[in-house]
């Protein structure tokens, strides 16, 4: 099929390369000119996925029209805070019959929309699929075994995404709980920052396990309020992605938390990074969404205090331990 991938970060590049390896014709849109040039001339994304030799048939461009011209599948992998503007810039060039796959994980600042909602609003009238699950870009690009979920209210669209992405090392399951799959993929990044903070403070494996488990409870609580199925959070997009991101050494969000726990300032941590740690932006959005829905999310609130209210990381976790006693299933 003729495919376009919008966003040439590590994840977008890994997905574009996977599609090219599957035999599809793929055009990758990059915001950065040096990235497009490096992919076309040397078959490598030196800025975001250094060291990975890309399929020589994969092409890149900085031109939105060229990127999506004739594409039957358009995959959005731009960062959450720019996804709306990027989608808006593409909409007049996207075919009415195209299937849109959203691989971005996050909650939009301000409007508090999920990423499939953002794309549906900016590029209306097309079937939209959310792609999520435990998947480090570097491991996908290296052909390491990976399993993810393609979620859509249109079963045929979910199956279409399943077919084009599936490969011997990349297994895709379909799902119909778009809210649950997307919300889990966004919130797990906040929990990864929290567990990174605990690891940076050397609080031990008990604390990590508690944060992951109670973080999952918060995710499910908000998901239920928004209409998601609790069972979704026990699957790949929920527990699977949560455990990976909270424990894996390749997790950008855990790495940010780790530095915070060791005493570094957020602005200094972010200043030396080319890549985006979605958990930072999502913390603000998740806290606002929880407040809007009247859902208690103490771990999200604690991470927010550390990131944006300058509360010392250790005190934030102490406050979590000193909250009023309650039943686990309350």
Give the gist of this structure:
This protein has helices spanning 10-21, 33-42, 64-68, 83-90, 115-122, 137-141, 155-165, 178-200, 205-225, 236-247, 252-261, 266-271, 278-293, 298-308, 313-321; strands at residues 2-6, 25-29, 59-61, 73-76, 99-102, 128-132, 146-151, 170-175.
Query: What is the first-to-last residue Cα distance?
Result: 49 Å
Strand order, largest beta sheet: 3-2-1-4-5-6-7-8
Name the CATH superfamily assignment of the largest domain: NAD(P)-binding Rossmann-like Domain
CATH class of the largest domain: Alpha Beta
Q: For the CA atoms, what is the radius of gyration?
A: 19 Å
The overall pLDDT, averaged over residues, is: 96
- The beta-strand count equals 8
Taking the sheet with the most strands, its summary is:
8 strands, mixed
Folded structure, characterized:
This protein is of the alpha/beta class. It folds into two domains: 2-176, Rossmann fold; 179-321, N-(1-d-carboxylethyl)-l-norvaline Dehydrogenase, domain 2, CATH 1.10.1040. The chain is 51% helix and 12% strand. The protein has helices spanning 10-21, 33-42, 64-68, 83-90, 115-122, 137-141, 155-165, 178-200, 205-225, 236-247, 252-261, 266-271, 278-293, 298-308, 313-321, and strands at 2-6, 25-29, 59-61, 73-76, 99-102, 128-132, 146-151, 170-175. An eight-stranded mixed β-sheet has the order 3-2-1-4-5-6-7-8, sandwiched between helices. It is globular. The model has no long low-confidence stretch (mean pLDDT 96).
């Amino acid at each position: 099929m003729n495919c376009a991938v919008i966003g040439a970060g590590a994840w977008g590049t890994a997905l574009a390369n996977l599609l090219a390896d599957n035999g599809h014709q793929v055009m990758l849109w990059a915001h950065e000119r040096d990235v497009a040039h490096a992919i076309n001339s040397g078959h490598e994304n030196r800025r975001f996925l250094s060291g990975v030799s890309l399929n020589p048939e994969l092409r890149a461009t900085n031109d939105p029209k060229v990127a999506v011209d004739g594409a039957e599948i358009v995959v959005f992998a731009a960062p959450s805070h720019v996804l709306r503007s990027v989608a808006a810039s593409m909409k007049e060039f996207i075919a009415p019959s195209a299937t849109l796959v959203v691989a971005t994980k996050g909650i939009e600042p301000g409007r508090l929309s999920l990423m499939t909602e953002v794309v549906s609003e900016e590029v209306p009238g097309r079937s939209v699929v959310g792609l999520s699950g435990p998947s480090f870009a570097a491991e996908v690009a290296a052909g390491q075994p990976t399993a993810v979920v393609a979620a859509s209210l249109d079963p045929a669209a979910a199956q279409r995404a399943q077919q084009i992405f599936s490969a011997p090392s990349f297994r895709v399951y379909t799902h119909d709980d778009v809210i649950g799959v997307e919300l889990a993929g966004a919130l797990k990044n906040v929990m990864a920052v929290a567990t990174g903070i605990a690891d940076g403070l050397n609080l031990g494996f008990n604390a990590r396990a508690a944060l992951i488990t109670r973080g999952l409870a918060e995710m499910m609580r908000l998901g239920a309020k928004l209409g998601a199925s609790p069972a979704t959070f026990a699957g790949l997009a929920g527990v699977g992605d949560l455990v990976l991101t909270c424990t894996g050494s390749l997790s950008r969000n855990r790495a940010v938390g780790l530095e915070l726990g060791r005493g570094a300032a957020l602005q200094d941590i972010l200043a030396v990074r080319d890549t985006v740690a979605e958990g930072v932006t999502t913390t603000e959005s998740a806290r606002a969404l929880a407040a809007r829905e009247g859902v208690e999310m103490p771990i999200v609130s604690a991470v927010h205090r550390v990131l944006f209210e300058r509360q010392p990381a250790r005190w934030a976790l102490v406050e979590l331990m000193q909250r009023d006693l309650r039943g686990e299933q309350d």
